[in-house]
């Protein structure tokens, strides 16, 4: 085994040894050469050129693989940056952050805690409104067709799984039932 180091090592070879092929095999991969042929490993045609040729091929292969990986990472990063920019734009365009206290030039992240608190309060108000509708419908409107409304409302004690568009429909149906004359 002979070591050949020419100049400073490249970054990918730090911590490893560059090994020249044995004189007998001359870099052959599967002992292709005859054992009796001992040539100078530094002879260009039979030793050094083959070794450097394989090294060049492997470096080209490694470089192309790393370039492909870098392009994939860069594309993924660009997609994530576009998603983030779209998300921030939608937050800035939303009505809720503009209604919060604070300066207009203040970043939306600083207003986030207040925004979350406001959302929790609104959710509690909606839950209370649904409970009031359910309670009044059970007590007073069930004979007048309130059973269908009660089936549409979320179960008592269950979290609201309805979308924002459902609540106005519940209220409208409740008001229509309340406007009907009582059934005797």
Give a topology summary:
Blueprint: E1 2-3, E2 19-20, H1 44-93, H2 95-99, H3 112-141, H4 146-152, H5 166-179
Antiparallel strand pairs: 1-2
Helix pairs in contact: 3-4, 3-5
Task: Work out the helix count.
Answer: 5
Unreliable spans: 34-38
Helical fraction equals 55-70%
User: Which class do the helix and strand fractions yield?
Assistant: mainly alpha
| Overall number of strands | 2
How many structurally independent domains? 2
Q: Could you describe the largest sheet, including whether it forms a barrel?
A: 2 strands, antiparallel
What Rg is obtained from the alpha carbons, in whole angstroms?
38 Å
- The chain-level mean pLDDT equals 74
Keywords: Coiled coil, Signal
Signal peptide: 1-17
Coiled coil: 70-132
């Amino acid at each position: 085994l002979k070591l050949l180091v020419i100049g400073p090592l490249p970054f990918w070879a730090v911590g490893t040894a560059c090994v020249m092929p044995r004189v007998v095999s001359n870099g052959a991969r599967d002992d292709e050469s005859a054992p009796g042929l001992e040539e100078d490993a530094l002879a260009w045609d039979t030793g050094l050129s083959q070794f450097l040729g394989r090294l060049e091929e492997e470096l080209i292969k490694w470089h192309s693989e790393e370039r492909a990986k870098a392009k994939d990472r860069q594309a993924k990063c660009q997609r994530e940056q576009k998603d983030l920019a779209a998300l921030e734009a939608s937050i800035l365009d939303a009505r809720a952050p503009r209604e919060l206290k604070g300066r207009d030039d203040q970043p939306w992240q600083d207003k986030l805690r207040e925004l979350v608190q406001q959302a929790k309060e609104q959710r509690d108000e909606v839950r209370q409104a649904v409970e009031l509708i359910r309670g009044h419908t059970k007590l007073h409107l069930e004979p007048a067709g309130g059973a269908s409304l009660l089936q549409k409302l979320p179960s008592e004690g269950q979290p609201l799984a309805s979308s924002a568009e459902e609540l106005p429909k519940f209220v409208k149906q409740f008001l229509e039932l309340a406007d009907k004359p009582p059934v005797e």
